[in-house]
Amino acid sequence: MTTEFNLIKRFFTRPTPQADLGVGDDAALLRVQDGHQLVISTDMSVAGTHFFADAAPYFIGWKSLAVNVSDIAAMGATPKWATLALALPTVNEVWLAEFSRGFFDCANKFGVDLIGGDTTRGPLNISVTIMGEVPVNKALLRDGAKVGDEVWVSGQLGAAAFALAKLIDKNGAFDYIDEDELARLLPELHMPQPRAALGLALREVAHSAIDISDGLLADLGHILARSNVGAELVLGHIPYAQLKYGDTHPSDLQKMALTGGDDYELCFTAPASAHEQILQIGQQLGVPLSCIGRVVENAQLTLLDALGHVVTLNQLGLERDGIARYGFDHFSA
Ligand code: ADP
Ligand code: MG
User: What does 258-295 look like in DSSP terms, one character per residue?
Assistant: First the structure.
């Protein structure tokens, strides 16, 4: 018989070597290593907002945890435990098996134990709380950027946003993206690979860090606001996604890379003296790292062309009704 208890046992109970007590009791028991702080973050995934309700459940499972791992990475911390609060409209065992396979593939890849959660009936909604550890006072925060720091970003930006834009395109604006190219871009949207190892490696080097979930400009903007500084970015140094149509539609590519969400790359600032060290870290980890600009005193985010001339957001088509659109915001009109 399908009971709540059986579902939890079958789909969400796995060994939890990093916990003193995992799924099955009223609560889990964890032990943080001496000299460490517990790092906690929650990200909710809502059908229709963060994923299509009919998306492949494997990807929904993977991504619901991956976006949480990304937050822990951005703190320079080690992910260790997670809880999963799940509201399901119906019990579909095929769906659940695939969802849990995606979730645990991600959990295993990043060393996360699922230690508890809640399972209820309701509109499809997935809320994951992730916990990790970091040595006391070593976490990478948003407020540590210093004037003179270089601004870096990992990987390439814009592919996930392109995939999403194509999927929801109603007026043919992205007809130039063919099925093959969409198939190539979809994994970037559905299976983000959080930069866990990079976050750890940056702990002793970077002054500040954030993961890019809502777009480079929006997320870097959070670092700048919290640190009371500004930044100058060189547009030509941004690591744009490699697209078949990047050359024919450069302004779309630029928009996606600057303000598209779902990249789950890390953006960080570090002293210029650490430049070579950071390049080495990237080589060791096999993660491309691009220096895209520097931190400046005035509290503004400025974009520069190859000649050092200021390029306005309006020129880039990133303004609507005179208001700058830096990235995704759930509540802006
Ligand atoms: P309670 O009624 O005490 O809240 P539950 O019946 O909700 O207990 O949960 C029983 C056990 O199963 C608890 O240890 C809880 O953490 C775990 N659990 C429930 N749902 C999930 C889930 N989706 N994933 C992982 N663990 C879960
Ligand atoms: Mg419960």
Answer: HH------EEEEE-GGGHHHHHHHHHHHT--EEEEEEE
